[in-house]
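Human:
Take a look at this sequence-structure pair and walk me through the tokens.
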Amino acid sequence: MKIDPRHLRYLRAIDTHGTFIRAAEAEGISQPALTNKIGILEQQLCVTLIERGRFGARLNAYGKLLLRHARAIDAVLGQAVSEIELAQQGQSGPLIIGATPISMIELIPKALETLDKQNASLRVSVIEEYDDLLLDKLHAGEVDVMIGGLLVDQLTPDVAADPLISLPLEAVVGRSSALWDRNEVSLAELLEHSWALPASGSVIRSYVDAIFVAAGESMTNQYWTCTGLHGLKSMIRKTERVSLMPGHAFRIEAKAGELKGLRLTDPTSSRKLNLLRLKHIQLPPYADLFIDALHAAAEDHVWV
């Protein structure tokens, strides 16, 4: 059974516009013709893809599953056009990299420094997001590779994960903290202070939670949260609050004397960074150059 790629495009139009009428107008076909195309697709797959009602038209679980492949087709075709245009200009690419905030502190820039010396004509785009959003873009073909810290049980079978580096978590304090003059601290001591933590649900928060579990301690209830790494560091820098994060994440602020890392005397956990890619997608040679440079940067992590 072969699916007509145009039918997937029509499915995406319905998801975008919310009704068959508006989707048909956007695609330049009649509404009955669009309905017929979706009907053929549903017959081929033996499932209903769209729920129809007073609210309009909404993709159900099967429709959303198929939508990911529709996005992937659009991404592949868009990249093919970009590759041809760049080749006509004597350039190569584009290489689209999905990067988590932690990976953008030295690791990816170091790899790009090497790549730029090897192929200055390569067009590179870096999309900085958190792990879950990047994984969605990876599945949809909107990034070629991503560098993140998703745990193995969070990955689907179609994703290959190559370990890059493991960054142990430390306690981090600002100059106004009573702990500033310390070099190490226990989790029990930290619990006597107010905290600033990564937002719940983030990958780095899962590593923080693991420290509490390993130490047999209950999570503090005296804390603020922040979804962004920069904002979280600002909270710690400007208040007496404490946190846990990889020393790598605040290396610049530590060199400037604004933040300080304290070694945990209790069991700690490490923020792991992996290179993630889709198993069934063959990457172009220039992507392999970046991957080699990334592994080299991870192995030579004097910058940590």
